[in-house]
Amino acid sequence: MSDTLSLYKKHLREIGKLNSSLSLLHWDQRTHLPEKGHSARAEVIGKLSKMIFELSISDELGRYLEELEERDDLSERDRASVRVVGREYRRYRAIPPDLFEEFSIARAESETAWEKARAASDFASFLPHLEKMVDYSRRFAEYFGYSENPYDALIEEYEPGMTTAQLREIIAPLKDKLAPFIKHLVDEGTRPHTEFTRGKFPAEKQRELSRRALEAIGYDFTAGRLDTTVHPFTITTGPGDVRITTRFLEDDPFSGLYSSMHEGGHALYDQGIPDELRWTGLDDGASMGIHESQSRMWENMVGRSLPFWRFFSPIISEVFPQFAAASPEEIYRAVNVVEPSLIRVEADEVTYNLHIMLRFELEEGLINGRIAAKDLPELWNEAMERYLGVVPPDDAHGVLQDVHWSGGMFGYFPSYMLGNLYAAQLFAKAKQEIPDLEERFAKGDFSPLLSWLRDKIHRYGRIYDPIDLLKEATGEEPDSGYFINYVVQKYSEIYGL
Amino acid sequence: MSDTLSLYKKHLREIGKLNSSLSLLHWDQRTHLPEKGHSARAEVIGKLSKMIFELSISDELGRYLEELEERDDLSERDRASVRVVGREYRRYRAIPPDLFEEFSIARAESETAWEKARAASDFASFLPHLEKMVDYSRRFAEYFGYSENPYDALIEEYEPGMTTAQLREIIAPLKDKLAPFIKHLVDEGTRPHTEFTRGKFPAEKQRELSRRALEAIGYDFTAGRLDTTVHPFTITTGPGDVRITTRFLEDDPFSGLYSSMHEGGHALYDQGIPDELRWTGLDDGASMGIHESQSRMWENMVGRSLPFWRFFSPIISEVFPQFAAASPEEIYRAVNVVEPSLIRVEADEVTYNLHIMLRFELEEGLINGRIAAKDLPELWNEAMERYLGVVPPDDAHGVLQDVHWSGGMFGYFPSYMLGNLYAAQLFAKAKQEIPDLEERFAKGDFSPLLSWLRDKIHRYGRIYDPIDLLKEATGEEPDSGYFINYVVQKYSEIYGL
After folding, report:
1. Which of A25, A35, A278 comes nearest B222 by C-beta?
2. What pLDDT is stored for residue A430 in this prediction?
3. Does the interface ipTM go beyond 0.90?
4. For residue A245, which of A60, A229, B56, B347 is within the disulfide window of CB 3.0 to 4.6 Å?
5. Which domains are delineated in chain A?
6. Which of A350, A424, A334 is nearest to A180 (CA)?
7. Residue of B nearest to A20 (CA)
């Protein structure tokens, strides 16, 4: 009997090692691979991905899981592994292989069509692909199974345990408060001055700045590295190796810094996952939302706070002397401008969630058949007007802006919002449990927060599902009140209201 | 029937893709991997290596080979693939798996012991490991089989078709001429001036210099990249991606440049292997010796030539203005100092082959049982005195300097020498067939040589065995006369004799 457990663990280790290799192939593809190496690299990535997929749905693994699920003598960690791995196993196996292959081909075509459609702002050419993607996702939802709403079956992939009903509850107060608050800020508040932030900021100096910030918050450069890419990301190529990438805009010293701190937040999570969980199926974040809570907390609640700038303004002044004339308060205000805008990835922390809400409402409607894909552009623009008071001039700046739907990733967007909400809820708890947290920030000491997160979140990897983990850490269900309080308080002060 | 051929090719493509992945893991390990990632990386590398090895000795592959070896309707390329892959298959299968595993463990211990022994210059502590490595190699030679000399069975790994007898023939004239010629140079010649090459040369500027040289000789940076490592190397992570590494010494502008050109020579070979050979077992150099001939040719016959410096002296003067006062002739002489010395990897092109000859004689004696491992230090020092007139002060600078024997790589050293000899023979032929070759060099145009090598060597990959390839290209058997003429003529002139 105990032999099955060893065989099971060995199987997961094999998958883990191949995944490690695959991650490196991906990382290199986006950072270092020379132009002419891409075509062969795609084949190598395809081969490794297929091997991993086959091992993840193998009959062998199925037999191990079946036997281990019956056992009552497993350690808590082993039980968690069996639960998490078993859940994914059943999801992968639920889809008939032929259907999945058909979908994979359609997806590749859809992604290519989307790229072209976005470039030409031509929704009509993308529509047939989008319709297919919606259709596949609806069929998958039936295969996966759900009790209330087919959309639940899709969220499960990114946020296990979360349901549409619970999301609606979480969102309701946000919806009531956020849009009016933004209007209030913009119409009646005083926009911070940003003129002093203009200039040319060489990439090499910005890298130095990012490095200093990452070192300060506790990112371990002996277990990772910082490179540059067009689209920043964090990737774990193996234990002891959590890499981040960022990008620097030469006319903006903050974009690169916050991109680094955002990825740094993801990386602190991954660097904090203990070695015992290595290659057990548990060596990752609890969910996309919990992962995003870490990146958003370090980027916004830490990096865009006044205490942070009390510590960091001498450092930015050392790297870019033009900031020596600015006070910490001035920089703090300048990095916290609120501006309703068209593009999600460029949105500030106040307006960001409205972008997500809009997407959530539309995609949930698509999956439930209440909304037809052909009506999306109109519905999108109406909602933008309603939530943010801005209307896209074309679909490239509207419904075509995100890659997710082209790849059939319905159910992913809510994680971004949940990340912000979880971050606020966790941060409020941390402040309550560590009374001098922000004074420590002002001295450049971020270790109390990191230790708290390590203890409450990081060390568990995927042992707990996200909502259970949050409850364990904060004593409460997910509650958007924390986020609302955070933004209302912070931005009322900044905007002099 | 034709189905077997497709299955065989598919099998090789699978191996090729895994090898591509493994190469990237190795490259990254030596260039970018953070400190704490090494332990997991070793496991991932172990896993991939094992998978590749298993596929390379699988019964399935054996059946394909057996069937294909009987067929007379294969294309020339397919026949070559079956020959090359079949040869390796039989070598791998010849060793009983248990014995190979035992050897692998002993080898890891031996390599570790060697590292310590070299650091402490303590041959005695390494001796028992060395004895084991000799013993394993002798047993392997019996399993591999040979007609005359067990050492032949070991050379075969690196230089297929070469024998001890033929090596002795090739070496005899070298042995007669080289040692007296070096003595003549050093005792009676005029050593070039090198004072003007002293200074501090920042790594970033040296990188620029290497880049300019590599671009000039035709290295394609869109199908590769240049990084820095302690021990420079060339690695193909896949078609369209041949990477090189180099290292820069801040007090020497030439060490890094020539290391780059050496690796660049290897890389030009790999970049010239046609895409049709990708993942067929033929997408590599014909042998270690032929590979080394390419690196040594670009490093020495091109990079250390007067025509090269006629082209390159304005460039080095642009990067390092102190060279503006030196003529091309002066730089040319300064980079061609001959100096009998203790360490092989630092040897100039004239003395280098004597280092190899010494190793060849000793290792051939070890494998044939004429020499006992315990007598190596004494024999080494005697031979150094005889060939080069210098005696190591300790074993760290003598018998312990190279890693090869600690890993059981007997039969490898001759490839280095053959590389020099093949290079001279090929270069003489190229000069004969392209009369204005060196005038073109002086104008910075190296494409006639590269095209010639592409046509005669690169495009064949491993289709031909090394000696056949050399005969095809030059019309002659390997002949050390070309190398002797090259060094005698070049260095007599430089040393004013």
Report:
1. A35
2. 98
3. yes
4. A229
5. 2-148 (1.20.58), 149-497 (1.10.1370.30)
6. A350
7. B44
Entry field: residues in chain A: 497
Min Cα separation B245/chain A (Å): 14
Distance from CA of B240 to the nearest CA of A (A): 4
pLDDT bin (cut points 50, 70, 90) of residue A63 is: very high
Which residues on chain B are in Cβ contact (under 8 Å) with A28? 24, 28, 237
Give the minimum alpha-carbon distance from B97 to chain A in angstroms, rounded to a whole number: 22
Catalytic residue status for B439: no
Residue B1 has pLDDT above 70, yes or no: no
Q: Does residue A72 sit in helix, strand or coil?
A: coil
The Cα–Cα gap between A342 and A380 comes to: 11
* Residue A223 at interface with chain B, using a CB cutoff of 8 Å: yes
Contact A241 B18 (CB under 8 A): no
Instruction: Please state whether beta strands B234-238 and B226-228 pair in parallel, antiparallel, or not at all (unpaired).
Output: unpaired
In tens, the pLDDT along A378-426 reads 999 999 999 999 999 999 999 999 999 999 999 999 999 999 999 999 9
Would an 8 Å CB–CB cutoff place B222 in contact with chain A? Answer: yes
Residue B24 to residue A25, Cβ atoms within 8 A: yes
Average pLDDT over residues B184-210: 97
pLDDT in tens, A297-314: 999 999 999 999 999 999
B35, B47, B241: residue with CB nearest A40: B241
Note whether B20 contacts A: Cβ–Cβ < 8 A: yes
CA distances to A321, A331, A441, B84, B396 from A306, rounded to whole Å, are 20, 9, 9, 67, 59
**For residue B238, what pLDDT band results from cuts at 50, 70 and 90?**
confident
Phi then psi for residue A343, to 5 deg, are -105, 125
Tell me the per-residue pLDDT of B435-454, one tens digit each, with 9 for 90 and over: 999 999 999 999 999 999 99
Within 8 A of A24 by CB-CB distance, chain B residues are 24-25, 28
Both structure tokens of A219? 């990112």
Q: Which of A35, A37, A240 sits opposite B238 (nearest CB)?
A: A37
Q: Which tokens go with A328?
A: 């910490």
- The pLDDT, as a whole number, for residue A238 is 86
Residues A345-361: pLDDT tens digits? 999 999 999 999 999 99
- On whether any CB of chain B is under 8 Å from the CB of A54, the answer is no
Nearest to B245 by CA among B413, B256, B345, B349: B256
CB atoms A14 and B39 under 8 Å: no
* Chain A touched by B67 (CB under 8 Å): no
Structure tokens at B300: 């020495």
- In angstroms, rounded to a whole number, what is the distance separating the alpha carbons of residues A264 and A209? 13
Nearest to A44 among B20, B43, B47 (CB): B20
Count residue pairs from A and B with Cβ separation < 8 A: 105
Residue A1 in this model has a pLDDT that exceeds 60: no
Q: Which residues of A touch B34 (CB under 8 A)?
A: 221-225, 240-241
Query: Mean pLDDT score of chain B, rounded to an integer?
Result: 96
List pLDDT tens digits, range B283-314: 999 999 999 999 999 999 999 999 999 999 99
Q: Do B141 and B150 touch, CB atoms closer than 8 A?
A: yes
pLDDT tens sequence across A112-142:
999 999 999 999 999 999 999 999 999 999 9
Check CB contact under 8 Å for A17 and B240.
no
DSSP per-residue letters across B51-112: HHHHHHT-HHHHHHHHHHHH-S---HHHHHHHHHHHHHHHHHHHS-HHHHHHHHHHHHHHHH
Q: In what order do the strands lie in the sheet with B226-228?
A: B226-228, B241-246, B234-238
Alpha-carbon distance of B139 to B336, in angstroms, equals: 43
Per cent of chain A over pLDDT 90 is 97
The pLDDT of residue B135 is 98
Quick check: B2 pLDDT over 70? no
